[in-house]
Amino acid sequence: MNRSISTLTLLAGLVLGVTGAWVAQGAAAGSRPASHPAASVSGPIGSTATTFRVRGTQVPVDPDKGTYAMRGDLVGRWTVVPAKTLNATPRLYVEAGRERFVGCLDRNHDEVCQATEPHGVLRSSYIYWSSFAGNGQLVRGRWVHPVTGGSLAFEGSQGVINMLDTPAGYGVRTTYRGRVVLLPTPPAPM
Predict the structure, then answer these.
(1) Which of 4, 50, 103, 158 could be bridged to 181 by S-S, CB 3.0 to 4.6 A?
(2) What is the pTM of this model?
């Protein structure tokens, strides 16, 4: 069996699984305000972690340098560091890498990071795949971003953020939704 065919078969399974999760996640989210806590779960040493549903848009700042502005429930700067191209054909492009978000979880939806809102650095890895029409135009792109940790309020964080790229005029519109799990902030030493 050709190795590239088995890689594409694996990718197709991933796409179907993520697409199903994206649809199910959207249905489960219902009309609940996006960044309100979705649930509390038990974390390390009996602590309680809080899961936040997040959604919004990503806007290019300098795509050549991999920098984007996040709007919605996440406010700040998102930086993409591509690591490896997994497939590059005229109809399908796939890459993987890592990312860094510096900003906050905008709980009051004022588009500004307040001192009382969870903020810091959130790290994730990603896999991105996009399909193209015969004329080279984007049909759709999807990103899956497992959260791998962070610093300050995002230290020990977990979760997954899904992004969707769709054609919009002469550009691309990127939307995101997902869940970010934050550990409780330990009390300050006295």
Answers:
(1) 158
(2) 0.75
